[in-house]
User: Which sequence fits this backbone?
């Protein structure tokens, strides 16, 4: 089994990032975590996480109050789910951040 771990910054000011952990064997993704995090009050805060914990691929949306909303993903392989997760977070992180900011101000 091979493990890859890295952080990818989404904005030039380095206040938004993806934290990625992938475990694979012979090109097949066995487990993964792709988590979008934003810097709020000088602390990294998770906003949306895709992972394979609990035995299935899913998205966790982390609310301002700490509540986690779990949404299953229906892909045939973890490879497809990982691709979807990475593309979704790279394309939509600003909307996820705006949603969290609205929750924090209401």
Assistant:
């Amino acid at each position: 089994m091979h493990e890859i771990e890295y952080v990818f910054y989404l904005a030039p000011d380095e206040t938004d990032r993806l934290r990625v952990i992938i475990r694979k064997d012979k090109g097949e993704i066995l487990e993964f975590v792709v988590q979008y995090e934003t810097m709020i009050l000088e602390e990294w805060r998770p906003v949306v996480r895709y992972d394979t914990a609990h035995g299935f691929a899913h998205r966790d949306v982390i609310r301002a109050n700490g509540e986690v909303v779990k949404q299953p993903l229906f892909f045939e392989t973890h490879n497809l789910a990982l691709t979807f997760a990475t593309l979704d977070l790279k394309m939509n992180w600003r909307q996820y951040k705006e949603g969290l900011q609205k929750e924090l101000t209401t």
Observations:
- The chain has a mean pLDDT of 96.
- Residues 2-105 form one domain.
- The radius of gyration is 14 Å.
- The chain has one helix and six strands.
